[in-house]
Design a protein that fits this description.
By secondary structure, the protein is mainly β. Helix content is 13%, strand content 38%. The chain has a domain of 90 residues: Orthogonal Bundle (Cytochrome Bc1 Complex, Chain D, domain 2), CATH 1.10.760. A five-stranded antiparallel sheet has the order 1-8-7-6-5. A four-stranded antiparallel sheet has the order 4-3-2-33. A four-stranded antiparallel sheet has the order 9-10-11-12, with helices on one face. The termini are far apart.
């Protein structure tokens, strides 16, 4: 018995001794930038939820060699291989508690770079402000303002680490709001090319929405479980709403969007079967709870914003919710893992249809929005993630981004909106990942990302499908045209 006690004691001593160096190394080399609690500071939060885009081998390289164009130094000359691997194991481990990020933390984090309302109301450039693009470059955490007429960059600036959820514009298109995965919300004045305010609204953030009247920003968080309302003028805090369902279960937020015709925000909860509609024009932002049959991971609206079409990622069914009545009015057959957040609509043979790519199967589902029956499943070379079109082009463009297969993730499928057939396949750069399409204001040009560190925007004439220009960029991801977004084009997500 004494022998067993001694062995157990020695084992626990060895575990404790082994654990000390990684904690000590983290405290010495990481805590000053990333926070002693790993919740972030100057640098991003180091939690598995926040590091979803960074694979462990890349994390090892980053700690050893540093990160270009950032304040992240390399520690390969100070730490051995096993020590670096131990640090990676630490930052990919979940916290044993649910961290707090509430009113005090949000208020304290607020940064006012430029006094609200102090900048001129006239653009400092001559380009059409409604035909600009905001291009997110994930490679070095930057964004580019691109002139959609000349197809030339106007300005490039640093962003917060790992932007997520797509930037959103103020109604007139002057301001753009970004959310980072680790909760930072930034307001950028496009007219003056300056970041004017920032605040950290959460620890792990899904996305944000800007109200139709331009007065309020809503932020949806995975961590903590909350919705955060901000004043769009200066990003000061208005309200924190814990996301607790009627069943008493605390829930992450899947996504938030604004529904301007309804003067409301709509939020889907990931861990309880509810959709919330929040009236942004009313005092205290009252919440209307709508029960749904299944959890919602993502969703989009019909053009009237009366109907919400949503699905769970692991479900083969979608559900159509009438937001007026709060009732499910239809069920959709959707194979694999549909990405409704990238769904689009158009008119087909005199009736509206919706289409969504699929992240698991090589298929695009085209569904009649009156009968809610599947008209066709358009076969593609592999699973896709993004889908876009424009009122002035005959094609719906979808990528092979979700394949993970070099033989098919370099393609763009062009589906004819009249025949529902794949009419063309483009390969912007063979063997390199192609993703995300956006169109100029008039639909004349389509911009496609070569999603690589040494990547590019490849610009096509939408009539001839010929490449007209290539602009080098650092892992460009989303491209967002001011006009298409602010006018809620049927060919783009809202």
């Amino acid at each position: 018995m004494r022998w067993l006690v001694m062995v157990t004691f020695l084992f626990l001593t060895q575990v404790a001794t082994a654990a000390q160096p990684v904690d000590k190394n983290y405290g010495e080399h990481c805590a000053s930038c990333h926070g002693a609690d790993r919740l972030g500071g100057i640098g991003p939060a180091l939690l598995p939820e926040n590091l979803a885009r960074l694979r462990r081998p890349e994390a090892i390289k980053t700690i050893a060699n540093g990160r270009a164009a950032s304040q992240m130094a390399g520690f390969g000359d100070k730490l051995g291989k096993e020590e670096i691997e131990a640090l990676v194991g630490l930052i990919y481990s979940k916290l044993s508690y649910l961290p707090v990020w509430g009113e005090n933390e949000i208020i304290t984090s607020h940064i006012q770079h430029v006094p609200a309302g102090s900048l001129p109301d006239k653009p400092v450039f001559s380009a059409d402000p409604m035909n600009l693009f905001v291009v997110v470059e994930l490679g070095d955490h930057s964004a580019t303002i691109l002139d959609g007429d000349k197809l030339e960059p106007i300005h490039r600036f640093a962003t917060r680490f790992a932007l997520h959820g797509g930037p959103k514009f103020s109604p007139e298109g002057r301001f753009v709001y970004f959310a980072s995965r680790d909760g930072w919300v930034s307001k950028f004045d496009i007219y003056n090319l300056k970041t004017v305010a920032e605040v950290r609204a959460g620890i792990n953030t899904r996305n944000l929405a800007v109200s139709g009247d331009g007065k309020t920003v809503l932020v949806g968080n995975y961590l903590p479980h909350s919705l955060v309302l901000l004043d769009a003028e200066d990003l000061t805090l208005l309200k924190v709403i814990p996301t607790v369902g009627q069943d008493g279960k605390s829930s992450r937020v899947s996504a938030v969007y604004q529904a301007e015709p309804r003067n409301s925000f709509v939020a889907a909860l990931k861990d309880t079967r509810e959709v919330w509609e929040i009236a942004y024009g009313e005092k205290d932002f009252p919440i209307r709870r709508i029960s749904v049959d299944d959890y919602l991971d993502d969703f989009f609206f019909d053009q009237s914003y009366k109907l919400l079409i949503g699905t769970a990622r692991d479900s083969h069914k979608g559900q159509v919710i009438d937001l007026d009545s709060g009732k499910k009015v239809a069920q959709l057959d959707l194979p694999g893992m549909p990405h409704l957040g990238s769904g689009i609509t158009w008119d087909y043979q005199g009736r509206p249809v919706m289409a969504t790519p699929n992240m698991k199967d090589g298929v695009v589902s085209v569904i009649d929005m009156q009968s809610w029956k599947t008209i066709k499943e358009v076969k593609t070379l592999g699973p896709g993630f993004f889908m876009r079109s424009h009122e002035n082009t005959r094609y719906a463009w979808t990528d092979g981004f979700a394949t993970g297969n070099p033989a098919s993730n370099d393609v763009m499928h062009l589906i004819d909106k009249e025949t529902l057939e794949v009419a063309h396949i483009l390969r912007p750069e063979p063997g390199k990942t192609a993703a995300h399409v956006e169109f100029t204001r008039d639909g004349k040009y389509a911009l496609v990302s070569v999603w690589e560190m040494e990547g590019a925007l490849v610009i096509y004439d939408t009539e001839t499908l010929k490449e007209v220009k290539r602009i080098p960029m650092k892992k460009p991801s989303g491209k967002y045209n001011v006009y298409n977004k602010t006018t809620r084009s049927a060919g783009t997500s809202h």
